[in-house]
Each structure stands twice: as structure tokens, then as C-alpha cells.
Design brief:
Mean pLDDT: 92
Number of helices: 11
Order of helices and strands: HHHEHEHEHEHEHHEHHE
Helix content: 40-55%
Distance between the termini: 45 Å
CATH class: Alpha Beta
Radius of gyration: 18 Å
CATH topology: Rossmann fold
CATH architecture: 3-Layer(aba) Sandwich
Low-confidence stretches: none
């Protein structure tokens, strides 16, 4: 493409879907996503082609996907009966995971993304009680109204913000945190979190391709940022540890990582990223 393949932040969902499609083709795949190829399309492939060299294989997205899959299963085993997926993008977990049929799964995203996803997945049957809502999550009033509609007092809800927070300003993240804590039905909040070094590496590697969807949020104090807002870190699963366990990413990186201590998640230096599940 003559111009950047990333025209807006929603295009990054195609990028992630491309890596899910590639992983699903492996004989040792960490998950199977039969829908990812059609969701990614040519644009997803084009974005992957301009990604930083360290990420071009897609191993961080693949590991992130599997880590979140595993922690969803953990949450359900602990009593979760409702999942709110904010900025769900082109995620297909309600179709591909082994979920309880009675589980409520509610996706929220911008109207064009929701409409496109419904068209691309027309005819596919979710394994649980799936509903979608068209919401601008950056609008505090619209976000609050959505949460009020989606939740009932007896829910045991998990909120997932996969791939969302990095695109938000810090004050928006704080506002979102306050909204979630204000609702007792929300028991857990799961997110991916990266250090400033990782953010800078992606920004430099992607160059002008992210001008229309700039990445912003990577707190220097890592997990402690959310603990100071009132959350408790229940699970911290680093991408590098996941790469070692699942044998993804460069072999040299995995070898060196075994020799080094895990970074402090409350003061992460260097290249650190993780999936974190908080509880209230």
C-alpha cells in the first residue's frame, strides 16, 4: 500500500487477527481461531509487514492471547458469570473457547467495528450468551451508561481491556478505573501492560504508521499504578515467561531470559510486558 496500512486504531485489531491466523496454522498451535484469517484480511497482513523486526513474528500477541485465554478459564473457575470485553475489536473468544453456555459475554466497541464484525461473523454461532453494544468508550457518559446497562447487582464480572489501554491518555485510564471500581459487580479487571521501553521501541519501529492511532500509556511504575488506584494484582504473567513456557519468540531471547531474574512488575525496567489480572 502506498500509504500507511493503519488508518485508525481499529485497524490494529486486524493486525492482531493476522497473528492469530498464523498461529492457528501451526501444528503446535497454542489456540485455534478459524475466523482470524477472514477478520484480518489483507490490511492485517500489511500492518504485520511494517511491524518492528522484534515483533514481526507476532510472538508477543500470540503469547498475550494464550495468557488471557488461560486467565479467563481461571476466572470462570472462580465463579465469573459475566465478561465485559471493552474495545473487543475482532476478538473471537466467545466462538472459539470452551465456555459455559450460560456465561454472559458482552462486547463493546465503536459502531463501525461492531457492524463490520457482525457482517464478517454472520452465520457463526457463539458458544455462550453473546451480545454486542456500540459504544464510544472514551466518552465518560456513554461508558457509564453502558456499564449500568450491562451489569446487575448479582453479577460476578470480569472486565477485559486487551490492547486498549496503551492507546489511552493517563487521565482516561484513571477515569475508566474509577468507573469500574464504582461497580461492585465487577470482581476482576484483566489487561496487558507494557513498560515505557517497550512503548518507545514500538513507536520507533512503527514510525509514522501509528500517527493516526498513537500509543501513549505505559506507566513507569507498572502494576503499582493500578494498585494505587485501589486494585490488587492477583495474577502477573509476563510475556517473556510465556514465551519460554510456550516456546515462542526468538530462541536467543528465551535463553537469555532464563538466565535473568524476572523484572519487578512495580518498577519494570527495560523490555517488560505482561498480562495482569487485578481484583478489587
Amino acid at each position: 500500500m502506498a500509504e500507511s496500512p493503519v488508518s485508525n486504531v481499529s485497524d490494529t485489531a486486524r493486525w492482531v487477527a493476522f497473528y492469530r491466523a498464523q498461529e492457528s496454522l501451526r501444528p503446535d498451535a497454542l489456540f485455534q481461531d478459524p475466523f482470524a484469517g477472514r477478520l484480518a484480511g489483507e490490511r492485517g497482513k500489511a500492518i504485520a509487514a511494517v511491524a518492528p523486526l522484534q515483533m514481526r513474528s507476532g510472538w508477543p500477541m500470540v503469547v498475550r492471547t494464550r495468557l488471557i485465554d488461560d486467565l479467563i478459564a481461571t476466572s470462570i473457575a472462580e465463579g465469573c458469570d459475566t465478561i465485559l470485553s471493552l474495545a473487543a475489536g475482532l476478538d473471537t473468544r466467545p466462538y472459539r473457547l470452551a465456555l459455559p453456555p450460560g456465561l454472559r459475554w458482552i462486547e463493546a466497541d465503536l459502531p463501525p467495528m461492531v457492524q463490520e464484525k457482525e457482517e464478517l461473523l454472520a452465520g457463526a454461532t457463539p458458544v455462550c450468551r453473546l451480545q454486542r453494544e456500540k459504544v464510544d468508550l472514551a466518552d465518560p457518559a456513554a461508558r457509564s451508561a453502558f456499564l449500568n446497562r450491562a451489569l446487575t447487582p448479582g453479577d460476578k464480572a470480569l472486565v477485559i481491556t486487551e490492547g486498549l489501554l496503551i492507546y489511552l491518555d493517563e487521565e482516561v485510564v484513571r477515569s475508566l478505573s474509577n468507573d469500574l471500581l464504582a461497580r461492585p459487580a465487577i470482581r476482576w479487571w484483566m489487561m496487558d501492560l507494557s513498560s515505557p521501553t517497550i512503548l518507545a521501541m514500538i513507536q520507533k519501529g512503527m514510525g509514522s504508521h501509528l500517527d493516526r492511532s498513537p500509543m501513549k500509556f505505559a506507566p513507569a511504575n507498572g502494576v503499582a499504578f493500578f494498585e494505587k488506584l485501589g486494585w490488587k494484582a492477583r495474577d502477573i504473567r509476563s510475556f517473556v515467561r510465556g514465551a519460554i513456557d510456550y516456546r515462542r519468540g526468538p530462541a536467543v531471547m528465551r535463553w537469555f531470559a532464563r538466565m535473568l531474574p524476572e523484572p519487578d512488575p512495580r518498577d519494570p525496567k527495560g523490555r517488560w510486558g505482561a498480562v495482569v489480572r487485578f481484583e478489587r
